[in-house]
Amino acid sequence: MTPRDASEPNRSRWSDLDRPPLNVTALRRGLVREGGLWSEVDVVQRTGSTNSDLVARAAEGGAAEGAVLVAEEQTAGRGRLDRQWTAPPRSGLFFSVLLTPGEVPVERWGWLPLLTGVAVATGLSRSAGVDTALKWPNDLLVTVGGDERKAGGILAERAGEGGVVIGVGINVSLKENELPVPTAGSLGLAGAVSTDRDPLLRGVLRALEEWYGKWRAAEGDPGVCGLQEAYAAGCATLGRVVRAELPGDRAVVGEAVAVDGDGRLVLATGEGVQEPVGAGDIVHLRPV
Length: 288
What we know:
Keywords: Biotin, Ligase. The protein has helices at about 25-30, 50-60, 110-130, 195-215, 225-235, and strands spanning about 40-45, 65-70, 75-80, 85, 90-100, 135, 140-145, 145-160, 165-170, 240-245, 250-260, 265-270, 275, 280-285.
């Protein structure tokens, strides 16, 4: 789907005064700098998927590392396992970034979604004052009324031979009656001190630049750069009994005891076996 301009009929950029549009000029001024990671910041009013758009741009040679694409509204946003991600216009942060970690061995690129999760949690803690937790591998959790709810997700896709596009979706100002499912949440419902999306986006992208720089300097070694320790410290999955629903209709139940050097979740099963899980759907069965 081609991004549509804000001037399209019957759509006002100020149609919801509680949800003002992002200020792209201020975002560029605050993020794009000489020697920094972010090379360009674009904001579109509406598109199907920022990930799909940026992957296509990268394939055509129309985007360099550090390109950031933000949508005020996504109509075909995707999560893991091709689940749909939708939200009202300007109610959240929906963006994708292009990274080209050429000096990092490809086998370590699987850490990028986890790295992004740590960066998102770090940035939101600083700018929104909300305690967040990470559900392995790529969900952002907040607490609403004592219940743990999903407020965001991360999706990484290869872009050509040397690139990775990472998409992030965060529910910012969604109200209870706007949530797509009862288990969803938002920063606003979790008591954020601010739901102003401009500083929230700047905070997340600055934290992502910081963590990506450390990881890249360590040639992707998650132990050397502190990423493995930081992820484990913020991971709500560790210490819980979980069910891992794996490809091929197989499921494993066990206690999540570690995230290993490859970013896999290690489960201690009832049979006394430690089984690493590299892909699958994780269901939390028991709180810590």
